[in-house]
Specification:
CATH class of the largest domain in chain A: Alpha Beta
Low-confidence stretches of chain A: none
Helix content of chain A: 25-40%
Strand content of chain A: 15-25%
Mean pLDDT of chain A: 95
CATH superfamily of the largest domain in chain A: Stage V sporulation protein AD
Structural class of chain A: alpha/beta
Largest sheet of chain A: 13 strands, mixed
Oligomer: homodimer
Distance between the termini of chain A: 19 Å
C-alpha cells in the first residue's frame, strides 16, 4: 500500500542480521563496541584506499550473511552503492560475492534507499534474503571530491569527516528481527547551498521534507518514535534540521539524534562530525540495531541524507541537490 | 514469484507510454523516425554538455508522462541513473521534476535495471505510475571517461560511440501497453578484459550469462522470442555474444539484434556502433516499443549491458566488471 510518498509493508520484512566494520577513528566512538570488526589499520591489508573500501564493503555483506547463519550465495538480491565514481566499491564487491546485484546511487542516503528497495523486494516475494549495504573511506573520498591527502589542505570548521567503514543488513520475510514497517521515498530538494564544505546545511532541508512527509503519510508525530535518526548532517546540520522541522510544525528535538554527530568521540570540537555513506551504515547496523534487538529502542525513524553533487556540477556553478529516504523500524514485531 | 535469478510478475505491469529524444547522429539511424524529438543540435539550447544531457533526460520523462496523458507530478516513483559521476543528470533532472526519486547506477544497463525495479514497485501496489529513464551524451562521456574532445584523439577500431539522447517509459498496472512479464537480475561478470576501448568484448559474457539464466529460469529457448535485444555490445561484441551463447547451448543468431549495432546508419564501417546508457534507451523506447505496440513484435527479451569500470579502477590495473539485467516483454497482454 502507498500513501503520499510512503510505502507500507503489510507483512513487514525484517532485518534478521547485520554486519559492520569500522576504521580506527570510527571505532573510537560509541559504535566501536558494537561493530563486528574494529580496525586498527584503515588500509585493511590492501594497497590502495579504493581496494580497502571495497574489501570493507564485501566484509560487511559476508559478515551480515554469516550473522544470519547464511552463506553469501544464499543472498538473492544485493542492493548496494557507494560514493566513488561509478560505484566501483559496490560493483567490485558484488563481482566477488557473485550474487544478483542492483546498483544504487543516492550518496550518503544509499543505506536507506537500499533498505527500502530490499524490503519492497522481499515483501513482494521476490527474494527470501535481500541485502542492503554501503560504505565509504575517508581517504578515497577526500581525493575524489576534494584534495589529495598529501596536499595537507586545511579543513574549514563547517566541514565533516567521511567515515571509514561499511555496514550491511539482511532483510527477509522469515525469521526474527527488526521490522521495516514503512519507507518514505525522498524527493530531490535544493535550497541553493553552494558551499561544498557545508553538506549538513545542504542536506538538512531534504531531511526535514522527508520527515514531514513521513509524519503526514503515517499520521504520526515525533513523540510516537523512540528515536528519529538522521544520517550524517553533523552538529551544525542537525541544528538546522531541528529548526526546519519546527517551522513545519514538528518538534523533533527530544527524539532526534544524528549518526554524523555521534559517530566520533570528539564531534563538535574539531569538525561537525561524520559523513559519507559508511557513517550511518556503521552507526545504524551496529549500535542502533543492537538497541532495537534488545528492545531498548522500540520504534525508530531512520532518515539517511545524501548530497547529490559532483565535482563537475559544483565546478559548473550548480548548487547542491540533496535527498533523504526514510525507513520506519520496529523491534519485536512478528 | 521468483525462480533462480528471475522475478515473475503475476499481474504484469505495462509500459503504457514512452518518451524519447535523440541527437543528430542518432536520429539519422533507424530509430530517427520513431523518436519524439530528433535534435539538429546536440547542445539542446544549453551551455554545457552536462546540462544538455540532463535537459534531454528531463525531456524524455516529461514526454513519456505526456504521452501517457499524465502530468509529471502524477509520477509516484522515478527510477533513473546515468553515466556521469554521481549520476548528476538523473539527480538534477529529478530536482526539476520534483517526484519521488530512486537513483540507480548500472552503467549502460541502467535502462533495464530501472524497468525491472519500476515493474516490481508497480506490481506490489506501491506506485500507480512509475517511470524508468536514462540517457547519455557523447561529449560529456568522452571528457569524463576518455579525453577532452578538443584533443582530437584518434579512436581505435574496436571502440564504440556514446549515444546522445534519452529514453523513458511509464510503467503502470492500469491501462494498455507492453507487459513486463519477468525480469532477470544480473550478476557481475568479469572475463578479465582490460581494454577500455573494447566494451563490447568486456560486456558480452555478462549478457550471455543473463540470457542463459533467463532461458533456464523461464524454461524457454531463443526460438520462443521474436527478438532478443542486447543493449550496446556493438558489432564485434554481438559476434562474441552469439558465440558465447552457442557455447552455453543456445543459438540466438536468428533472433538477436543489438541496439549499439543498429543505432547508427554506418555502424560497422567507422566504429563498432553505439554505446552509452542512452543507446538502448533511445532504440527500445522508440523503435522497438512502436513495433511491440503494433504487435509486429510480440515477445521480446531485452537485455541491456553495462561496464562497471571507472577511470580510477582502470588506472589501478583492474579488469572491467560487467552486468546485464534483462526484462521479458509481451505485446497485447491484458
Amino acid at each position: 500500500m502507498r500513501r503520499g510518498d510512503t510505502l507500507f509493508f503489510s507483512a513487514p520484512p525484517k532485518i534478521i542480521a547485520t554486519g559492520t566494520i569500522a576504521g580506527p577513528k570510527e571505532s573510537a566512538g560509541p559504535a566501536g563496541r558494537y561493530v563486528d570488526r574494529a580496525l586498527s589499520d584503515d588500509m585493511f591489508g590492501e594497497d590502495t584506499f579504493e581496494r580497502a573500501e571495497r574489501a570493507m564493503l564485501r566484509y560487511a555483506v559476508e559478515r551480515a550473511a554469516e550473522n544470519a547463519h547464511l552463506a553469501a550465495s544464499d543472498i538473492e538480491a544485493m542492493f548496494s552503492g557507494d560514493l566513488l565514481n561509478q560505484i566501483i566499491s559496490a560493483s567490485f564487491a558484488a563481482r566477488e560475492l557473485d550474487v544478483p546485484f542492483l546498483g544504487m546511487y543516492s550518496a550518503c542516503s544509499t543505506m536507506t534507499e537500499s533498505m527500502a528497495l530490499a524490503a519492497l523486494t522481499a515483501d513482494g516475494g521476490y527474494a527470501k534474503y535481500a541485502v542492503a549495504a554501503t560504505g565509504s573511506h575517508f581517504a578515497s573520498a577526500e581525493r575524489q571530491y576534494r584534495f589529495p591527502l598529501e596536499q595537507g589542505t586545511t579543513r574549514p570548521p563547517q566541514s565533516q569527516w567521511t567515515a571509514t567503514g561499511a555496514g550491511a543488513c539482511v532483510i527477509s520475510t522469515e525469521g526474527e528481527g527488526v521490522s521495516i514497517v514503512s519507507a518514505t521515498i525522498g524527493r530531490v530538494t535544493d535550497y541553493g547551498v553552494t558551499d561544498v564544505n557545508n553538506m549538513g546545511a545542504a542536506m538538512a532541508p531534504a531531511c526535514a521534507r522527508t520527515l514531514a512527509a513521513h509524519f503526514r503519510d503515517t499520521d504520526t508525530c515525533p513523540d510516537d518514535y523512540d528515536l528519529i535518526l538522521s544520517g550524517d548532517l553533523g552538529v551544525l546540520g542537525s541544528d538546522i534540521l531541528r529548526d526546519l522541522c519546527r517551522e513545519k510544525g514538528y518538534d523533533i528535538s527530544a527524539k532526534h539524534a544524528d549518526c554524523g554527530a555521534l559517530i566520533y568521540p570528539d564531534a563538535g570540537r574539531e569538525y561537525q562530525g561524520g559523513s559519507g555513506a559508511g557513517c550511518c551504515a556503521i552507526v545504524f547496523n551496529s549500535y542502533v540495531y543492537a538497541l532495537m534487538r534488545s528492545a531498548r529502542l522500540k520504534r525508530v525513524l531512520f532518515a539517511a541524507t545524501g548530497a547529490l553533487l559532483s565535482t563537475v556540477s559544483s565546478g559548473q556553478g550548480e548548487s547542491i541537490p540533496c535527498i533523504s529516504h526514510a525507513v520506519e523500524l520496529r523491534s519485536g514485531q512478528k
